[in-house]
Design a protein that fits this description.
Shape of chain A: globular
Structural class of chain B: alpha+beta
Order of helices and strands of chain B: HEHEEEEEEEEH
Radius of gyration of chain B: 21 Å
Distance between the termini of chain A: 70 Å
Number of strands of chain B: 9
Largest sheet of chain A: 9 strands, mixed, barrel
Order of helices and strands of chain A: HHHEHEEEEEEEE
Helix content of chain A: 10-25%
Helix content of chain B: 10-25%
Strand order of the largest sheet of chain A: 1-2-3-4-5-6-7-8-9
Oligomer: heterodimer
């Protein structure tokens, strides 16, 4: 009968040895830790090139702000080329809002989705790392993760609001491709429609150190007769600019003000709210 | 291994047992110096718990009103009629409750700010590393205002300015606007992050008390989009009693579908 524990320990020390003499020589490390460090070193070695390459990329990370855009036009100032069905839906949404009974998902505290979150007019904090660029939106405190390690893995399609973004560097520009939408989004607050088949291509480029341009191309044959492009220009803010919390939209959905439900601790300062 | 040596000599106190850049080296800004410990990457909760009890095993040092609040909630729950909970209305959990939920965190380190993406209720914490107090225009918020600094290999985070609408935990330990939460975040193993947090709220507790959470590194996990507002079906009535399964966009769709399914001939 072979003792499994002894076998496992032997296997672990072989792995630790294989990981490099320095690990094995460090008596402070257990074999488990040595394995983890070996794995980490392997990740580091593999990604060293990625990390080095990112040092050369323009720094698009930081705090950015653009003017809000309610009605999206193409880069040449026209309405996007809608199919008849889309045009009908668009007109209907505009009329409904005018009549004060809009179906705009954002009004029900649902996310704006991609690309609409780009023209909210609120701060966006972009972090830039070698394998992931992340957009932290002040608007509803939503996060968009842009993975730079290849196309999105959609073995299990999980259509959602933000979509699934993947990106790569092309010279000085960051290209982002986003697919996998749930089709409930509006492209803008006027009501340009968006189907689950929409593909959003972005090219993010610094025009100068403090100006970031995002050229957004939308392809969605269900609603648009041809792909169309619009541009949004962000101005750099101080990295530590104050970004107010904005994800308490659901507070508006309550029947009575939130403070009515808060702990009642008479005179402890809660009344300052 | 040059990184380890440089880090060790620059910092002096780095424990020998810790990995050099465990976490996810490709998920932190290349401008973050090598001397700063790497805690970036996705961390899965190992401490999800509806109750956050003091780590010393002692009783929670409630002030009388807080004990009353806690007992009232427990009683209502035992009677099958739970009371208002911000999470049940799609509002953020606040600190420290985000540290005990069964959802992962995605930490991104930049030189000036450490971002902690929180999967549940789609939110994130910003840990300001500039040491400055909140700006004059700051208004109390669900997650508060966090400033951080490194003390050796430990990230110390102080959070104040919370709005008092959230609870310390799901069970119902309350908090006031005076609460200050001080976290000590460090790796206790190369892939385990420990967050020891002290709750100092003199209007709610007779003395500060400390609790602890652990997180495990998971490089494969990608934070999911968590949209509670899609199915906001347990809204409270005006007295704070939660309703069961009423309202909610998805819920309405489900009910419609199930009604169609029940039609004769289907």
């Amino acid at each position: 009968m072979i003792d499994r524990k002894i076998l496992a320990a032997a296997a672990a020390s072989v792995l630790a040895l294989a990981a490099g003499a320095s690990f094995a020589q460090n008596p402070a490390l257990t074999s488990h830790e040595a394995q983890l460090r070996a794995r980490d070193q392997a990740v580091l070695d593999k990604d060293k090139a990625l990390i080095e390459a990112d040092r050369k990329h323009p720094r698009i990370g930081g705090m950015w702000l653009a003017e809000p855009i309610a009605t999206i036009k193409t880069a040449d100032g026209k309405l996007p080329p809608m199919t008849p069905a889309a045009a009908k839906l668009y007109r209907q949404r505009i009329a409904e809002r005018k009549a004060g009974k809009t179906d705009d998902p954002v009004e029900a505290c649902l996310p704006p989705g991609t690309p609409r979150s780009l023209w909210s007019g609120q701060l966006i904090f972009i972090t830039q790392a070698p394998a992931k660029v992340t957009l932290f939106h002040q608007y509803k405190h939503l996060i968009r993760h842009v993975f730079l390690d290849g196309p999105p893995k959609l073995d299990e399609p999980d259509p959602n609001w933000e979509g699934h973004s993947s990106g790569w560097w092309e010279g000085d520009a960051l290209r982002i491709e986003t697919i996998g939408f749930n089709g409930e989004q509006w492209v803008d607050s006027a009501g340009l429609p968006q189907s689950p088949d929409m593909k959003v291509d972005e090219t993010l480029k610094l025009l100068d150190a403090n100006t970031l341009e995002d050229s957004v191309t939308v392809a969605d044959p269900k609603y648009y007769s041809a792909p169309w492009t619009t541009k949004v220009t962000f101005k750099r803010q101080a990295d530590n600019a104050y970004m107010a919390e904005d994800n308490a939209c659901a507070e508006r959905l309550l029947e009575v003000p939130l403070k009515n439900y808060a702990p009642s601790d008479g005179g402890t300062g809660l009344s300052e709210r | 291994m040059a990184l380890t040596t440089a880090a060790a000599s620059a910092q002096g106190a780095r424990p020998a047992g810790l990995g050099p850049v465990m976490g996810d080296p490709t998920r932190r800004d290349v401008r973050v110096p090598d001397t700063v410990p790497n805690i970036s990457g996705t961390w899965v909760s190992q401490s999800s718990n509806r109750t956050i009890p003091p780590a010393d095993g002692g009783p929670t040092p409630f002030l009388p009103w807080a004990q009353g609040y806690f007992d009232q909630r427990a009683k209502a729950e035992a009677a099958g009629q739970p009371l208002f909970d911000p999470n049940a209305s799609c509002l953020p959990s606040g600190v420290p409750r985000t540290l005990s939920v069964p959802y992962p965190l995605d930490i991104v380190q930049t030189p000036d700010v450490i971002m902690i993406g929180v999967e549940v209720m789609h939110t994130y914490r910003m840990i300001h590393m500039d040491g400055k107090p909140p700006p004059p225009e700051y208004k109390p918020s669900f997650l508060g205002y966090s400033v951080g600094h490194w003390d050796g290999d430990t990230l110390v985070i102080e959070t104040t300015g919370m709005n008092g609408y959230t609870q310390v935990d799901e069970e119902g330990r309350p908090k006031s606007m005076s609460i200050k939460v001080t976290e000590h975040v460090r790796k206790v193993a190369p892939d385990i992050l420990e967050d020891t947090f002290t709750i100092d709220d003199p209007k709610t507790y007779s003395h500060p008390w400390t609790a602890r959470s652990h997180f495990k590194w998971d490089p494969k996990y990608r934070l999911a989009e968590y949209i509670c507002e899609e199915n906001n079906r347990n809204k409270p009535d005006a007295t704070g009693k939660l309703r069961h399964g009423q309202g909610g966009r998805l819920n309405a769709q489900e009910q419609k579908t199930s009604a169609q399914d029940k039609k004769p001939g289907k």
